[in-house]
Every structure is written in C-alpha cells, then in structure tokens.
Amino acid sequence: MLILRRADVTDVLSGRETEIIDLVAETYRLHDEGQTSLPHSTFLRFPEERHSRDRIIGLPAYRGGDQPVAGMKWIASFPGNVAAGIERASAAIVLNSLDTGRPVAFAEGAEISAKRTAASAALAARELTREDPPASVVLIGCGVINLEILRFLAVALPGLREAALYDTDPARAAAFAKQCAVVAPGVKAYPVGDLDAALGEHRLVSLATTAAAPHMDLSACGPDTTVLHISLRDLTAETILGAVNVVDDADHVCRERTSLDLAQQVSGNRDFVTTSIGAVLRGTARVVREAGRPVVYSPFGLGVLDMALAEFVRQGAERDGLGVRVDDFLTG
C-alpha cells in the first residue's frame, strides 16, 4: 500500500494544469463512449440539526481505456469549517488493483478533488466559448474551488485578463484577491460589491459557493453569458429551464436536490438538458447559443475523474519516490 499525503499529491500535480485538463477531457470522452462504470454517489447525512448542512459522499468509479483504474473517493463537506478557519472539504481516495482487487494506494483526496473540479470547469469554459473566448470572469464564492478554477482558466483561456470577485463576506473577497495574484499573476483580480453590475459586464461566470438551496437567477447577465455552475444549487429551477444546459452526466446531476433536480421536478422531464460535455468533446453534439438564453454548465463531479487523477498521482509518486509505503498493510 502506498500512502500519499497532501504534500506528495501537491508535488506531483504542481504546474501540470495542461496535462490535468487533457486527462479530464479524455476521461469524459471515455465516459461518453461507455467505457466507465459509475454507480450513483452515496450521500451520508446526519439527523441532528447542527449537522443539517454537513454531508459525506462516497463516489465509487471505474475508468477503462488504455490505463484502467478503479477505486473510491470519500469526501466530507462541512461548511461550518470555514468560519473556524479550516477547509470546508476533506477527502481520501483508495485505488484498487484490477488484478487482485486489493487496495494499492490511499491518497489525500481534497487536492485531487479540487483540481479535477477546476480542470472540468476550465475545459468547459474553453469548449463552450471557442468561437469568442472571454477576456474576463466573475468568480462568485471566494474559496478553494474558485481559486483553483482561476488557476486553470488562466491556462485554458490564455486571453483571460480580469477576474471580478464576489463573496457574501467582503473581507474574504479582499483577501482572496491577494491569493489570485499568486496563482494567476497575468489576471487582474479585484473584489466587487455590486453583483448584478458585474454579471452584466462579464461574459463568463463561475459559481462555487456553499449554497444549499437556490438563491439567484441570471437576469442581470448579458445575452452571451456562459455560467460554470460548479456548486450546483445556486440557480433557481426557472433559471435552469430558461438556459441552454450542458452537464457531465444527466443521471448523476439530476438528483439530490441540485438546481437541475428541482428543474426536473417542476418540468416533469429532463428535456431542458441539451447535451453532455463528453458528447461535445467527441464531436457528436454541439451547443448552439440562443438569444436571451445563457449557456449553463452543471457538472455533478464524476468519481471517474477522481480515479483518473489519483492514478496519475500514484504513477507520478512511484516515479519520483514519493509517499510512504506500508508493505504489511494487509498482513501486519
């Protein structure tokens, strides 16, 4: 068993944004081709009121192709951590041998999860704006995920020059601007207080909040806006029904009271989902913009991406001599 700490994971992934985006793109293609196995995620919730916003999610997955991998991510989301000065999410990933089924690696998963999420968002931003790439973005929610998204957007969209930052806590947005200057020095990042004005001025929006229920629409957005709806529960059902919707997997994203699940309950169907990012990447579908309808990308966050990136990390760690090997994990 190879134990991979966060420092090991960071060492392998640092500066590898282009490779990670390519890996995520290839995994989406394989998923669209049916070369993955992806059961529904399991949500563990708690009966106590004090844990009403907390959850732990299990995501088992198998990716086929030239480098098959299987395993599971176990990720906890405790929003109250933020006020206590610690990260909202923590995670661990176990990888299993496809020869014996035995566990072969146990990796810190929050870093992997954040980077695969950001790579998915940046990939979608690139693919959905190819005809007219944006030069600026509004980041709503000034936390770990949007920081990584900005890092990856700066690679996927080389012409990106500005990032307007909005958070319900203005002090957090101000501090976040300093972090942005480090991860994307070529992008001018600045806090904004008027969200509607910012939405009207920028054609790319990234939503990465801790919202548990819909709290906004896109009426303030311009006619050619692309929204990366990463946190999945920000937009009203009516907003989703009025958008051109791209997902990673409709079966996964239309559940657990996401905005798309609520839209499905209102409409009685999933006809509002236009296509998947995998189909776009394979060229079997294309997204046609319609006047007055924003394009909204809502990725559930497929466990198969975690497995692909965790295997990338495992191979890199083996190559570089990183991690802690426990040879008697199963026998000691």
Main sheet summary: 8 strands, mixed
| CATH architectural designation of the largest domain | 3-Layer(aba) Sandwich
Q: From the helix content, strand content and strand pairing, which structural class follows?
A: alpha/beta
Distance between the termini: 12 Å
Let me know the CATH homologous superfamily of the largest domain. NAD(P)-binding Rossmann-like Domain
Please give the count of helices. Answer: 11
Overall body shape: globular
CATH fold topology of the largest domain: Rossmann fold
Number of domains: 2
- Topology pattern, helix = H, strand = E: EHHEEEEEEHEHEHEHEEHEHHEHEHE
Strand count: 16
The overall pLDDT average reads 96
- Percent of residues in helices: 25-40%
Which parts are unreliable, with pLDDT below 50 for 5 consecutive residues or more? none
